[in-house]
Specification:
18 helices, alpha/beta, Fumarate Reductase Iron-sulfur Protein, Chain B, domain 2, 476 residues, FAD/NAD(P)-binding domain, five-stranded parallel beta sheet
Amino acid sequence: MVLSKKARLAVHRHAMLEQQPEVRVGNFLEVPLGYDDETAVSEAQRCLQCPKKPCIDGCPVGIDIPAFIARIAEGDFPGAAKKLKETNLLPAVCGRVCPQEEQCEKLCVRAKTDEPVAIGCLERFAADYERNQVDVPLPERPLRTGKKVAVVGSGPSGLTVAGDLAKMGHDVTIFEALHKPGGVLVYGIPEFRLPKAIVQAEVDYLKRLGVKIELNSVIGRIETVDELLDGEFDAVYIATGAGAPVFLGIPGENLGGIFSANEYLTRSNLMKGYLYPKYDTPMPGSNNVVVLGGGNVAMDSARTAKRLGPDSVTVLYRRTEKEMPARVEEIHHAKQEGVAFHFLTAPIAFLGDETNMVNRVRCLRMELGEPDASGRRRPIPVEGSEFEVTADTVIVAIGNMANPLIPETTPGLPVNRWGNIIADEKGRTGKSGVFAGGDIVTGAATVIEAMGAGRIAARSIHEYIMAGGQWDWNKP
């Protein structure tokens, strides 16, 4: 049924049902429960189908948002999923973890006077509907080109470039260093935010498109990028992410019980530590957990720790809640689940017991000064404000940096002073035949931004290899 504009405006945004906090802290099941058919149709009918479609401008992969939503409003759920996959091969993932509130939904016309259409919830609904069908049709594939592309890394950017190139008729092989495909989607994001079965389903779809995946393949060790190019591949796309941890460099950081968020989350997510002893990867036994940082990784770490049953989980952040880079939804969920927050607090040392295990974090109170390069107000120490926080487990979640293996084993590949590969707006590096995108280029960013880089690079790679590698590398 087609509603009038007045009727559409009268429909309020539908909140997604969730597990109750007191229940979900005892399990690792997904927190939001999704829309049912009726709710999805009603939410989709809120879309005004604006002629200028401003929401598309907020999507890094350029999804035709009004078009897929219109199909849901009409009850054509398979058509909605098909429309999504024209530009987004990971809609079930993006519908769950992308910050729509800062991207497409932020530009929704309804956000000016009401609440934006729940674009992320509808994307998740359409993708989940398709995944639960028996036989998901594949898009028509063009004739094979005979060209071969190697993709290093199977995170969001690598999966996206692989899928797009496969749909263009190229043979694509992904080389993944770990024993499971998905990159940060499997080692970094907890099960309660992104069930791993969903990631595997998206990977399986790519395999049906013809993408090959070689696991336990550390490029830079078993083969170099140059060896891939000298062998069977016409181009290489580097999508290794930003998975190397960053530490504070303060006294006591080598004490036992102090973990990088990368290790802590990898133990739980990829190695299934939260299911110990079914999986032989124990998580640290903790009474008082302290998490350092204010981003989504810090929230993932704190919420994971909370589910493992300690007496307390406390997040220390050196600015105020207003400056936290984590999604508002993740902070809200953490608070609901009993995570405590100490703002304007900076750790200055870790203290240990006679067995060299951490037992306290020495901190300083902070106050905010003028904005720094990030645009956020700079935290300034308050003299004489030292205090201590009890902790037998500390998780450091203050950022990540690029793994140096690929640059160190690839002569002529330019990097910046942070170790990130330098690539232009088309994903081209300064080394002929080598492209790069995602966090290895930008530093830690969002899943959808990495996917957007993959889409752009796929078009550049296609143009390059179809020109026989003779294409002008400096062509704008």
